[in-house]
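Schema walk-through. Below, the input block comes first and the output block second. Nothing else is stored per chain. Lengths vary across the set, and this one has 253 residues.
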Amino acid sequence: MARRKKVYEGKAKILYEGPEPGTLVQYFKDDATAFNAEKRATIEGKGVLNNRLSEFFMTGLNHVGVPTHFIRRINMREQLIRAVEIIPLEVVVRNVAAGSISKRLGIEEGTALPRPIVEFYFKNDDLGDPLVSEEHILAFGWATQQDLDDMVSLALRVNDFLSGLFLGVGIRLVDFKIEIGRIWDGDYMRLIVADEISPDSCRLWDMETGKKLDKDVFRRDLGDLADAYTEVARRLGVMPQGPTGVTKPTLIN
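--- output ---
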């Protein structure tokens, strides 16, 4: 059996050629990184959890009319996705002050923001993914004004969906990051949510205790990252038993 051709490898995922034109296989690694990959570790089972959680969120978004690249899960570590042209921007939605916005603006962490704030960051690891304005985006041609309007609309719809979902299981959605890609249907272009949605890309706090259930556990040495992610999956009913014993992907043609 020939191994699939690798298309791209990032910090937490690998993309392989898909079985059909216009598709890719996205494989979730156990690698954990923080501070632009200055801090690294391997967390057994993390890839399984993120695959299942991202499947859960993306499927839910598709069902409520928010288009995503997700097609179906292949196995415990891989999913079939649509190939998209990624816009070189990270889109961050903030509901509560935490992380960089607290440092930049001197807002105490945990302060509820007056409304959801959408920020754009230029995807460039060498530069540390800097915060950019709409003027930068338009001037350098990373996206059009219509793209920006659509990206903000998509991000806020994702925020509404995820906030309600987490609220129902006692979790506060502090902030999250998504990536957005372009796809073409003939001559018509539209934007869809891509990459992943998981505790790697969200800040999640227990509503009663404030306990962190996201990658800040790893960033700040607050405990076992796999335990935190498993708690999120358990509350959502995604993987009640956790990812025990599953460590390797199954290859497909």
